[in-house]
């Protein structure tokens, strides 16, 4: 039996092996009964020195338990990962919630409509120069049959309920064309 | 907490986690690590060594069955020791019920610890062999070279770590490690003839 392994057993008994070394040794002890006998004897000597009682563990002690454990069901517990949100995540979530609440209020408040219309107008002014007529869009749509069909649909439904007859919205809707490929 | 205790607890946590994730054979590591300590503990309640080992085995089986509920609120060994003590006490109570006409209340299990007539199952032969082994160990220690004797005694009787012993003996930790190992080997060699014929 290699002497360095016996020395490791002596260290293990005294809690002088680190986690990884101890685990490696246990794997060897599990497979080699001579190493297990050695561990049992060192432990018995150590105990006898302190108590005057010599108590030697039977050689087949762990084997018997192992055999019984094989008849028991296997555990398959899920990993417990507690979700702990960071301060940053909490701050971002709070900001999104505040924005959602304010936006909700402004959409539902009838006094806000003129402002919304103004905002749409400003947005239109900032749009790039549109062709005087929609011929450009029509040409583009003609190149893609799907876009043409969508454009036809939009034209046919440009007085949809959601625009609700609002002048600004209608005008905005009329210039809308689907030209994405 | 010393770094050695920390290593030991980390090892236990690692092994427990392996078992809880389905590695049943990893439980062997816990048995190998704690078998002697559990037998010693049970032996304080159940004096017959053979019965003590049976109760210790039952302890480990119970521990395996309960391991799914172990969440690491206490150290594994504390949890295991509690199971061992309860198993030993229950064993004493059930044995006393079998061997006597009167009923013993389970609450009286503590009192049984001090009832030698229920515990003392050691035979004269076993007591004699035990004494012979203890004498052999003492003689072997006396015959050790002084450095080895000092190192093993500081470790076993004072519970000092290798680092503390190295400081006390003014030598490297590696030397302490080697001296303690050689002392154990020397004692073990002296015990060999007795253990080959003894009923242990």
How does this structure look, described?
The complex is a heterodimer of chains A (181) and B (200). By secondary structure, chain A is mainly alpha-helical. Chain A has helices at residues 3-13, 19-31, 33-51, 61-69, 87-108, 113-126, 135-143, 145-156, 167-174. The longest helix of chain A is centred in the middle third of the chain and has 22 residues, at 87-108. Chain A is elongated and about 100 Å long. Chain B has 200 residues and is mainly alpha-helical. In chain B, helix 7 packs antiparallel against helix 10 and helix 8 packs across helix 10 (173-197). Chain B has 10 helices and no strands. Mean pLDDT of chain B is 88; it is low at 114-120. At the A-B interface, helix 1, helix 2, helix 3 and helix 4 of A face helix 1, helix 2, helix 3, helix 7 and helix 8 of B.
In a nutshell, what does this entry contain?
The complex is a heterodimer of chains A (181) and B (200). Chain A is mainly alpha-helical and 181 residues long.
What is the count of β-strands of chain B? 0
Provide the residue-averaged pLDDT of chain A.
73
The helix/strand series of chain B, from N terminus to C terminus, equals HHHHHHHHHH
What structural class should be given to the helix and strand makeup of chain A? mainly alpha
Report helical residue fraction of chain A: 55-70%
Q: Provide a count of the helices of chain A.
A: 9
Low-pLDDT regions of chain B: 114-120
Distance between the termini of chain B: 36 Å
Major β-sheet annotation of chain B: none
N- to C-terminal separation of chain A? 76 Å
What is the N-to-C order of secondary-structure elements of chain A (H for helix, E for strand)?
A: HHHHHHHHH
Note poorly predicted spans of chain A: 115-124, 127-132, 169-177
How much of the polypeptide of chain A forms β-strand, as a percent range?
A: under 5%
Note the overall shape of chain A: elongated
Q: How does the major sheet of chain A shape up?
A: none
How much helical structure, as a percent, in the residues of chain B?
Answer: over 70%
Structural class of chain B: mainly alpha
From the alpha carbons, calculate the radius of gyration of chain A and give it in angstroms. Answer: 40 Å
């Amino acid at each position: 039996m290699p002497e360095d392994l016996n020395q490791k057993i002596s260290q293990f008994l005294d809690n002088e092996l680190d986690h990884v070394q101890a685990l490696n040794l246990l794997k060897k002890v599990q497979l080699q009964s001579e190493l297990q006998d050695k561990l049992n004897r060192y432990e018995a000597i150590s105990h006898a020195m302190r108590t005057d009682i010599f108590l030697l563990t039977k050689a087949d002690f762990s084997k018997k338990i192992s055999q019984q454990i094989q008849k028991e069901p296997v555990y398959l517990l899920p990993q417990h990962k507690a979700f702990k949100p960071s301060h940053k995540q909490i701050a971002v979530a709070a900001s999104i919630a505040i924005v959602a609440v304010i936006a909700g209020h402004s959409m539902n408040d009838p006094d806000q409509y003129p402002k919304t219309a103004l905002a749409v107008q400003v947005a239109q002014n900032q749009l790039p120069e549109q062709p005087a007529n929609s011929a450009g869009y029509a040409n583009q749509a003609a190149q893609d049959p799907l876009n043409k069909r969508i454009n036809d649909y939009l034209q046919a439904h440009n007085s949809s309920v959601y625009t609700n007859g609002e002048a600004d919205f209608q005008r905005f809707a009329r210039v809308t064309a689907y030209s994405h490929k | 907490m010393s770094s050695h205790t920390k290593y030991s607890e980390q090892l236990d946590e690692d092994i427990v986690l392996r078992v809880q994730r389905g590695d049943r054979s990893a439980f062997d590591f816990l048995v190998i690590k704690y078998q002697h300590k559990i037998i010693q503990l049970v032996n304080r309640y159940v004096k017959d060594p053979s019965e003590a080992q049976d109760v210790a085995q039952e302890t480990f089986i119970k521990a395996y069955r309960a391991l799914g509920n172990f969440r690491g609120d206490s150290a594994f060994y504390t949890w295991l020791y509690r199971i061992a003590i309860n198993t030993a006490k229950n064993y004493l109570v059930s044995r006393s019920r079998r061997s006597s006409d009167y009923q013993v209340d389970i609450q009286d299990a503590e009192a049984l610890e001090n009832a030698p007539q229920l515990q003392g199952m050691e035979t004269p032969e076993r007591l004699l062999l035990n004494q012979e082994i203890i004498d052999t160990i003492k003689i072997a220690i006396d015959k050790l070279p002084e450095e080895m004797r000092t190192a093993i005694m500081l470790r076993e009787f004072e519970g000092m770590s290798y680092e503390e012993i190295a400081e006390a003996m003014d030598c490297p930790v590696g030397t302490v490690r080697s001296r303690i190992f050689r002392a154990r080997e020397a004692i073990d060699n002296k015990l060999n003839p007795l253990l080959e014929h003894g009923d242990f």
